[in-house]
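Lab meeting minutes (informal)
Scribe: AK
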Amino acid sequence: MIYQNIKSNSSSIETIKEQVKSNYFSHIPSEQARQIIGEILLHYPSKESINEFINTWFNLEEDTFMADGGKYRERTHAVFASSVSDNSVCLLPYQPHFQTKYYNELNGGVARYFKEIPEQVLKNEVFEGLMKFAYLLFSGLKPTNYFIEVHQFRIKAKEGVIGLPTPEGIHRDGVAYVLMAMVKRNNVQGEETTIYDLDKQPLAQFTLMDTLDIAIVDDTKVFHSVSPVYKHSAIEGEAYRDILVITFKETD
């Protein structure tokens, strides 16, 4: 899997780039994100491909590396590398996710192996659009080569049992940039994203609500967290929050 000669003339990407330069984060509503993806792909993703993308979150596996003993998180994971010389992103042979204790006091310090993101997801045009958007934005902010990690997350809640999107609390991920894209939320409440300065003072709060609502952070300049997920109604079915997280870490 490789994306080559990635390019776009989207003026929206330039606007977001300036927001990140100035504020170190950006909150992109779904309508704008869909427009950007359409400009990158040269067509809007079909309803079928969007639904297929959403439905792949039913194929995740339980995260068994939760040091708090929690059973509320499912995920898959894949690793990529980008090359600024030819504007490409390529899939790498699988390797585990690793964070130091400095960046993740709860789950850091160990190599964490997860189910690899399946080919069905990697070939989906929504996934392709998000990966290319992340590349264009982050390589535009700092033209260098990056090690890229992609995570599908599902955070579940039950009656009397909350889900924690960021169980490590207020944190940075130890990378350069992070893209967080909402996929689907069902029968949940809470889950408010907060951006903090380096003194951990709040800068902004918002909730990713709709499919392809996106949050961008410069991980070197701000902290972030997401509040707990609660089940909204006892009669409206399973409660979960599905999100795609893409991180870019400098390799040069």
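Next up, CB showed the second protein from the same session:
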Amino acid sequence: MGERLLLRALRSGKSRTVILRGKKLQCIPQTLAKLSLLRVLDLRDNLISHLGPGFSSLTQLAVLNLGNNIFREVPKELKCLKSLQILHLFGNKITTISPEVFDGLDNLILLNLNNNKLACLPPQVCRLKNLKFMSLNYNQLASIPRELCSLKKLSELHVLHNQLTALPEEIRFLTNLGKLILARNQIKELPDGLCRLRKLKILDLAGNQIHVFPSAMQELQLQELYCEENPLLQKRPLYATQIEEVWTLKEITARFIMDQLDENDSVIKNSIKYYPEARNMLSQGKECPVCGKHFLSIWLECVYFQTPNQNMKISKNANCLPIKTLLCSYTCFKNRGPGIYGIV
């Protein structure tokens, strides 16, 4: 049946779309390689496990659907498809991706790898410079490679139902990300870098292990936030535990310098220009919300509860969002306002 459809396409000489969905194909028909002008190829719902060598001749192909077949790895022949923009590989048995696959997919915009058995992504995913939509739902990913965060054009990332425990701090570089789906993972803490995604509008964190949100969470301009089935902190008094009780010489020096810089001390401002390592270290400093003084790495972790924006669509359990805040000392903890609670 598949061969007859292809012969019909060959006779026309200018066929740009071939749909062979659900034809029980076990291999790619050889005559397919002769359709050099082919733009759209749908081979979904078959029994294909590999692509033949002639497949690489389809250099004009823009849309390829290989969903619901029996591939165990992403076919290496795909790297020859220089015009490919949309690639569906959902519902296969893919466990690995060869790094070389990404070499020729410069024009890829959409990649769908849902419902596979991927445990990791190769760092070479960063070569998909034009990728805008990536879906990795229902896999076995334990982490997101930081290299993925260099995909500047990525606007949607779906990683539903995986095994993520954390996100890379480099996620802040996904500056065009508008939709991030992380539901049903094992994430315990969100990185501060997430709060720097100014275009993020939809964030789904349902079914994770999150207790408290990052301190800069209120800077996000979200339209939708889903966080049900997380052990979010409730609004009740707790105790604060200090990470370290004795200040190090590094901490004392850093606090002094940051306070002087805050007061526009010209001598220190001019001097610090010549010490890039010290400048980088001081850039990680934090400001105490109680006394306004700066500190580097010794703090008490506390929480305050923020009422979400009324225009934002949000989970029913999130009437007050627990937001992390850091105090510089027990003295400030004792002098804190009534809205700040300690965390054990």
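CB comment: The CA atoms of residues 15 and 265 lie 73 Å apart.
No objections, moving on.
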